[in-house]
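#struct-help
A.M.: can someone run this one for me? Single chain, 345 residues.
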Amino acid sequence: MKVGRSDERRILRTVQSKTQNRRRMKNTAPKLTPKEYESNFAELKPALTPNAAVADANRCLYCFDSPCMKACPTHIDISTFIRKIATGNLKGSAKTILESNWIALTCAKACPVDVLCEGACVYNARGEAPIQIGRLQRFAIDNYFERGMPPLFTPAPRNGKSVGIIGAGPAGLACAAELALMGYSVTIYEAKKKAGGLNTWGIAPYKMQQEDSLKEVRLVQSFGVSIKTGVEIGKNLFVERLTDVHDAIFIGVGLPRPTRLNIRGEQLDGVYDALEFIGRVTRRRWKSVDVGRRVAVIGGGNTAIDAATEAKRLGAEHVLMLYRRSKKEMPAYEFEQELARVDAV
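D.P.: on it. Structure tokens below:
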């Protein structure tokens, strides 16, 4: 029997439908309204107003030993950038921040400041609220992007050398920015369709949005860095080819595949690793992400907290976290655990 094109399309639709039905999660939670989704995933810490930013900046004591700077993993000159906010020099403040951190907006929004810079603020010892360092950093960097990224750095003349970077996550972007400013020709190869790595695909939307990460990507590109997305090394392109066209290779492939539990039922429909789940939520296509009425999250770290709170905010009726040790031994930060408790996890 001869099968025509219309028959082929009908058969294909039938097969796809059956496949989707087999993969469909059982007992899914009802979908919420667009307004409910936006409310549930609204920013936890809104931007400071100009008046609030200046007022808080003027509280800074500009400590000579800067305990906040010592507590910052990237050692941003915090006292200096805050002083520049207080004096109205927002462009200078942004430059001070970016001199130490190329993903400054991500860090301002998602960094655990409670246990780092703000946790080290001397105001804590006085029983007073610490300087809002993260929100002040965001204020300066938001202003910089809103002004169209005015030039702050001048790249050195091209030195004739080329570097290929595998991975467009935080490490790859930071490496690319530094090398480009030193005069190297830089090309980044990224497997995903959007650059940014974990900052783009692995942070809960109520902390930051994909667009925040992509602003940082565009900043790096403004230095002349070329980014090729959808290129998987070993599949679309091989390392041997990279060594032919580049003088050096930097490998910043990011996180490995998630650890499997190797237990029965791990491959069943409705079982996801946390980063896969969070990555789907970051797209902000809320209705396309199914979540069960009852959700169990295995693990007690910060990523597990994000997965649990996102499931709850997507409409799950009951979310349970399962951790093999005691509550005191949970690696998640206390403020992250509090977020889960507030969400009734």
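A.M.: thanks! Confidence is low (pLDDT under 50) at residues 1-5, 14-23.
D.P.: also worth noting: Residues 5-23 form the longest helix (19 residues).
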